[in-house]
Each structure stands twice: as structure tokens, then as C-alpha cells.
Amino acid sequence: MGDLLYLIIGIAVLSVVAVAGLLASGRRARRLPPGAGTDVLDRGTTATPQAPPVPARPEAPAAPEATPEAPAVPTLERPEGVSSRLVRLRQRLARSQGGLGRGLLALLSRDRLDEDTWESVEDTLLTADIGVGPTQELVDRLRTRMRVEGGSTPDVRTVLREELLSLVDPGLDRRLQVSGEDGKPGVVLVVGVNGAGKTTTVGKIGRILVAQDRRVVMGAADTFRAAAVEQLATWGERVGVEVVRGPEGGDPASVAFEAVRTGAADGADTVLVDTAGRLQNKAGLMDELGKVKRVIEKQAPVTEVLLVLDATTGQNGMIQARVFSEVVDVTGIVLTKLDGSAKGGIVVAVQRELGVPVKLVGLGEGADDLAPFDAEAFVDALLG
Among 24-33, 164-173, 243-252, whose mean pLDDT is lowest? Predict the structure, then answer.
């Protein structure tokens, strides 16, 4: 009986302990954080722990809208001054034309100046494109001086320099008439045949005037050649000069008229007008050139008419000079390509033919290779 009682008591104690353990286990299970231990939904499998949420990457700020760039302002060129151009005139003419002077000095320095020598002097001058009339005149004067001054052993170089200078005529007014009166701009009309360098000359004159701080407008009235219009526009852009242009094949007189009107309205000092460079033997085209001049003068007088001649053309240039002078009353000559194979005597010949001075000479292809003609510098360059 006693043993049965102890058995009952032992079973009761075990039951109490088991119930207490189940209650404690339940409490521990409720305290576990979510996801730890056993997931009842997996039917006894182990749950994979969830990764912590990845924080959202902050969005990059939107790039500001690009501000359109202002068009680049072209850098304007500062043309070369006149003094340095004259230095280059002497240097280049001495290289290209010095043979004439050296040949004459060699002949005139002979111990005996016989007829054969004087014939050689005459041939040398004719070869240099001086022309028959001026050549005979120069030879006669040289013969007289060498005979009269022979006893005093004349300085041949001095005699030759003085006579050549007289032939070139240093007394001619070679100033460019680029100023107008009564508040109007000076108007320079530039004429010549194709290939003489007319449009390039207009651009180079514009540079000379800009270097002198003058306000300039250029008119591209050679409307029959699109290349001439574009070329002149490029010259203007380089030094900040406005170029008035019209439609290709348009009326040249209309473009010239508009260029002068623009120049007057803008207070320009000078208007340079490039004209069509057509063959001078077509009367209709020459008539149109006269029309251009007449239309311009409805607004302002033409103060200068420059004829551009290729110095290498020799006597053919004389024919051009005569025809153009009859149409537009040429007031000055521009000789281009004088630094190459041109004969320096063309200066004398063209001045005698037209009775007007050579005012500018082209010395090369560079932008500033155009210089005012200086008679003394020219003769010194001939003599080397």
C-alpha cells in the first residue's frame, strides 16, 4: 500500500514537471524575433533569413540645360602700316628689277661710249617695256650729259638716277583721293579686266585704309562672278569692313548704288566699288561700266577711278589703259605683279600713255603686299 502511494506521488510530480516545461517552452517561442527558429509553414524546414532592405540609391541631380554658346567673334587683323610696305617695296623691286639698272650702269661705265654702246642702252630700255618715245628721250638726254660732263669724269650712277627719276616724274600727285565733301564719303571705283588682280586690289586697298583708321564700306559689283563676290566678302571679314552684295548675275549698278547709299547712311569715310572685270573689247560691257559710274554719282561724286593693270602684260596693258580711260576717266593706275617677271619700264609707259600717275604697286600675293608708289624708291630699286 505504501509502495502504491509512492508510485502515485512520483507520477504526479513528473506530470507537474512536464506541464511546467511545456508552458516555459511556449513562452520562449513567443519571445523569438520574427524569422528565427522554425517556421511552421515550412513543415519542419529551416527558413532562410531575409536580407535587410537595400536603401534606395539617391537619384543624380538632373544636368542643367546647356546654354547655347554665343557665336565666336572673329579676331580682326591689324593691317600693316605704310612705312613698312615701302621698305618691302625697295627690297622686292631691287631683287626683281635690279637687272635693268645694273645693265645700264655696266654699259655707261665703259671707257668708250660708241654707237654700238648707245644702241645696247636703247635695246635694254626697250626690253624693259619703257616704250619707244620715252626710250629715245632718255637716250638723248644721257648722251648729252655724258658728252658735256665727260671731262669731269661724271658719276655715272648719279647721272642715270637723275634721268630715270625725271622719266618716272616724281612731281605727279600720287595721293589716293579717298575723302568726300559735304559729309559724303569718298568713292573709289576700281576697274580692270579679269585676271589683273582687281578684286584682290580692292581688298588690299581696304586694308590700307583700315590701317589709317578710316571707316570703309566695299561694294561687290562684279555680280557676274560669284567667286569675286565671295572673295571680297572674305577680305571684308578679315578687317571688319562691311561688304554690300547683290544676287548673282544681278545689276552691277544697283549694287554700286546700294554700297554708296549704305556708306553715306553709316557715316563711312570711303566706299570702294569693285566692278565687273570683263574684256575691254566688248562695247556693251564697257557701256555698262559707264552706267555704274553715272548711277553712283546720283548720290556722291566718284573721287577716284583706279585702273588695275597686270604689269606682266606689257604693251597689251597699254591697249586696256586707253579703252578704260575713254569710258570712266581714269585718275590713277595700280600695277600688280610688279615683283615678278614684269618689266619696270611699264611704269613710265602707262603714265605717258594716260597722263595719270601710278599710285599703287602690287608686290606679291600677301594680304599687305600693296604699297603706295614712290618714285625715288622705285628708281633706287632699279639701280640696285
Answer: 24-33
Segment 210-241, tens digit of pLDDT: 999 999 999 999 988 888 999 999 999 999 99
Burial label for 296, CB within 10 Å (0-12, 13-18, 19+), is buried
Among 267, 273, 349, 272, CA closest to 309: 349
- Give first-to-last CA distance, the chain, whole Å: 161
C-alpha cell at 104: 645700264
Q: How far apart are CA 142 and CA 98, in angstroms?
A: 19
Q: What is the pTM of this model?
A: 0.76
Answer yes or no: do 346 and 272 share one domain: yes
Among 168, 199, 226, where does a domain finish? 168
Looking at the DSSP assignment, which residues form a beta bridge with residue 333?
Answer: 307, 358
Count the neighbouring beta carbons within 10 Å of the beta carbon of residue 89. Answer: 24
Decide if 163 contacts 130 (C-beta within 8 A). Answer: no
Q: Match 537595400 to its residue by C-alpha cell.
A: 54
User: In this structure, what C-alpha cell is assigned to residue 256?
Assistant: 554700286
Q: Domains in the chain: how many in total?
A: 2
Nearest to 184 by CA among 244, 260, 274, 256: 260
Same domain for 153 and 195, yes or no, is no
Vertex 376 angle, CA 328 and 110, to 5°: 120
Torsion of CA 50, 52, 53, 58, to 10 degrees: -160
The tens digit of pLDDT for each residue in 107-165 reads: 988 888 899 999 999 998 888 888 899 999 999 999 998 888 765 556 888 999 999 99
- The answer to whether 330 and 354 have CB atoms below 8 angstroms apart is yes
Q: Are strands 242-244 and 304-310 parallel, antiparallel or unpaired?
A: unpaired
Cell numbers describing residue 349:
609707259
Q: What are phi and psi of 180, to 5 degrees?
A: -100, -175
According to DSSP, the residues that pair with 133 across neighbouring strands are: none
Tens of pLDDT, residues 178-217:
999 999 999 999 998 888 899 999 999 999 999 999 999 9
Opening angle at CA 66, ends 62 and 68, nearest 5:
165
CB distance 373 to 357 below 8 Å: yes
Residue 151: which domain range?
82-168
